[in-house]
């Protein structure tokens, strides 16, 4: 960095290194001098904010960059993109060690090598935004009728294969008797499906489906709010979780019927919305809250690391939080990478690679960052896997509950 001094270097290398380094990196680009009616209140070569004489692109007194921002809008846009993604080199210096050299980036950052890499928190935000953006684009909806659509597609494919003769050619390796039996069975099932669809007009089928949904909503509301539907309940012992309805059927009250009234009302209204939209409302709410839940898991994972290292002096919660940020950023980038690779190798191999590499990554983190031995590192990985899976399971239940409460 031209014109740097000891004070500026100390600021860049300190806790504010990421933000100051961003300003320095952005100011290195060649910027044309433009006239502006908004001139600096201080002479050239001094900081416009505090009038301190500049010895570099950033004021070593107040931290303000010497850029006047009087340039084309697309140049300013590049500064914004660089600040978010580190497009001028820091992101590309950060990703390889993050993904393929477990623990190296974390140890360097905690040792003071910071300005050349994307800051951990910003790296996590970049990874999570890209992941959830891609997830939303790929998974456009979660309607309950997805299975019906898949079944209809299977029937159409089977019918086309039968009519074109492809199905018969694929069964040529079987004995003639077995082949004919399979073809006859397929023809009978297709004929039965056609007859079933022809027998019930679409309007009647929709009315029946709506009636089923209404009945489901009624029973769920009674199970959640029995005190609001005394006319629907024929009998039931006090304190019992099973009641008999007027139609003669028995209904088991929901385990949530002892929660406060306002919670049960929100829950019942949320369930109604989920049923009416065939799951789309719940899916949308869960996608909205999932990033927030993952963000909340960051300090929880750091706390688990802190608990397992309580006896080590010189380790602070901040250090464990950096480890957690880097590990979760790695997870998000790994999901993105394997999501693309799975198109070529299949989802099964992608899941296996993720399971093996993520656990090896944790193993190397303990070896590199915390300087544990082989056996101790492997034992900690297994322990953290079990505990974190329990935490994730509980987090999913929380996400499901919050999704129901906010689906209204």
Q: Radius of gyration, rounded?
A: 31 Å
Separation, N- and C-terminal Cα atoms:
55 Å
Strand order of the largest sheet: 1-2-3
Proportion of residues in extended strands: under 5%
Shape: extended
- Count of folded domains: 4
The structure class reads mainly alpha
Elements, N to C (H/E)? HHHHHHHHHHEEEHHHHH
Unreliable stretches (pLDDT < 50, length at least 5) are: 1-19, 26-30, 141-147
Kindly state the number of beta strands. 3
Helicity range: 55-70%
Number of helices: 15
Largest sheet: 3 strands, antiparallel
Q: Name the average pLDDT.
A: 77
Describe the protein.
The protein is mainly α and 408 residues long. The protein contains 15 helices and 3 strands. It folds into 4 domains: 1-87, no CATH class; 89-142 and 279-408, no CATH class; 147-199; 201-259, no CATH class. It is extended, with a radius of gyration of 31 Å. The relative contact order is 0.09.
What attributes does this structure have?
408 residues; mainly alpha; 2% strand; extended; disordered N terminus
How do the helices and strands line up, and which of them pair or pack?
Blueprint: H1 6-13, H2 17-27, H3 73-85, H4 90-100, H5 104-111, H6 120-138, H7 146-164, H8 166-170, H9 176-199, H10 202-224, E1 233-235, E2 242-245, E3 250-252, H11 261-276, H12 280-307, H13 317-345, H14 347-368, H15 374-405
Helix pairs in contact: 2-3, 6-13, 7-9, 10-11, 11-15, 12-13, 12-15, 13-14, 14-15
In short:
By secondary structure, the chain is mainly α.
């Amino acid at each position: 960095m031209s014109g740097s001094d000891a004070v500026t270097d100390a600021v860049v290398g300190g806790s504010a290194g990421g933000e100051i380094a961003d300003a320095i990196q952005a100011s290195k680009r060649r910027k044309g001098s433009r006239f502006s009616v908004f001139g600096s209140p201080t002479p050239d070569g001094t900081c416009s904010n505090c009038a301190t004489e500049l010895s570099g692109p950033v004021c070593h007194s107040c931290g303000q960059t010497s850029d006047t921002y009087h340039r084309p809008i697309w140049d300013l846009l590049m500064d914004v993109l660089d600040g978010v993604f580190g497009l001028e080199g820091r992101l590309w210096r950060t990703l390889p060690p993050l993904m393929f050299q477990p623990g190296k980036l974390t140890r360097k950052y905690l040792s003071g090598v910071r300005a050349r890499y994307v800051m951990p928190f910003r790296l996590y935000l970049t990874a999570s935004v890209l992941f959830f953006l891609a997830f939303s684009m790929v998974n456009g909806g979660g309607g309950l009728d997805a299975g019906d659509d898949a079944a209809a597609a299977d029937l159409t494919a089977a019918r086309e294969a039968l009519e074109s003769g492809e199905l018969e050619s694929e069964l040529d390796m079987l004995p003639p008797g077995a082949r004919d039996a399979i073809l006859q069975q397929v023809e009978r099932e297709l004929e039965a499906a056609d007859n079933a669809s022809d027998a019930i007009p679409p309007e009647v089928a929709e009315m029946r489906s709506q009636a089923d949904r209404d009945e489901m909503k009624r029973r769920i509301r009674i199970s959640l709010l029995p005190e609001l539907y005394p006319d629907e309940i024929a009998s039931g012992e006090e304190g019992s979780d099973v009641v008999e309805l007027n139609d003669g059927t028995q209904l088991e009250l929901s385990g949530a019927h002892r929660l406060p009234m306002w919670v049960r009302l929100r829950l019942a209204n949320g369930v109604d919305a989920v049923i009416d939209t065939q799951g789309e409302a719940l899916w949308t709410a869960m996608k909205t809250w999932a990033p927030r839940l993952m963000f909340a898991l960051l300090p929880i994972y750091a706390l688990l690391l802190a608990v397992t290292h309580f006896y080590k002096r010189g380790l602070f919660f901040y250090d464990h939080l950096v480890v957690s940020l880097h590990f979760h950023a790695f997870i998000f980038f790994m999901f993105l990478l394997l999501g693309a690779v799975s198109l070529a190798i299949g989802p099964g191999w992608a899941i296996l690679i993720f399971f093996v590499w993520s656990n090896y990554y944790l193993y190397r983190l303990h070896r590199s960052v915390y300087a544990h031995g082989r056996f101790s590192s492997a034992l900690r990985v297994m322990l953290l896997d079990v505990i974190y899976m329990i935490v994730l399971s509980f987090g999913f239940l929380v996400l499901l509950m919050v999704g129901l409460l906010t689906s209204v």
